[in-house]
Amino acid sequence: MLKRTVIKICIVSILILTAATAWAGQSASIIPTTDAKGRPPKVVVVEQPHGVMPFWNEAVQKPKTLVLISSSIGCVPIDKDAFGNIMAEVGKSGWQPVLDPDYPAPRLYPVNASNYLTVAYLSGMIDRIVWVPPIKESLNGFSAETYKAFLKQIGMSDKDLDTVKLEGKVLKGSFNGIPLTIASLKDIPKTKKDVLLLIDLPFLT
Q1: Rg, Å, the chain Cα set
Q2: Alpha helices, DSSP H only, in 67-157?
């Protein structure tokens, strides 16, 4: 039994084009259980969001769009030296030794829930984030400013904040070099490419 009610799902072979249509309010029965080649999605359940790192590393052959359905976004910046040290450790011992176990430990674990997406981007697992926060309505001018204030609070620079603009019903910009889109569940941009899908269970409760 999981100690925390957090479920993260990594799906590497599903067309978000079809799934997004279903999430927007149509019958869930049209969500495909396989991709165009008949492959089922790979589903991984972890206690902490950064626990997906070794699974993404194994599954992803080239960077993919991440659709993040969650109340939080782990894009706190890390400097080049810290990232270099992380990858050096990963090269020697794999991902597990650098992942924060979320309990008191005798060392500092450099990859945690606050920065794992930055690490995923820098290491070539993802090339774009579509963040779906827990909102029911499409973004507008007021809610867009609220999310910009939140992004600044978690480390977005003023330079990056200047890139964040409301385009129709979604916010688009760049966070530490990571292309970022923020949208409600019904406004997820459609794509025909394979994606990673990460769902935080509290989002659904």
Answers
A1: 17
A2: 80-93, 116-122, 141-153
List, for residues 97-130, the tens digit of each pLDDT value.
Answer: 899 886 655 556 789 988 999 999 999 999 999 9
pLDDT tens for residues 21-59? 233 333 334 445 666 677 777 788 888 888 899 999 988
Q: How far apart are CA 44 and CA 32, in angstroms?
A: 17
| Pure H helices in the chain | 16-23, 53-59, 80-93, 116-122, 141-153, 158-161
Identity (one letter) of the amino acid at 196? L
Spatial separation of the C-alpha atoms in residues 14 and 152, rounded to whole Å: 33
Task: Report the alpha-carbon distance of residue 192 to residue 131 in Å, rounded.
Answer: 18
Residues 6+ apart with CB under 8 A from 120: 53, 56, 66, 126
Question: Which residues make beta-bridge pairs with 126?
Answer: 64
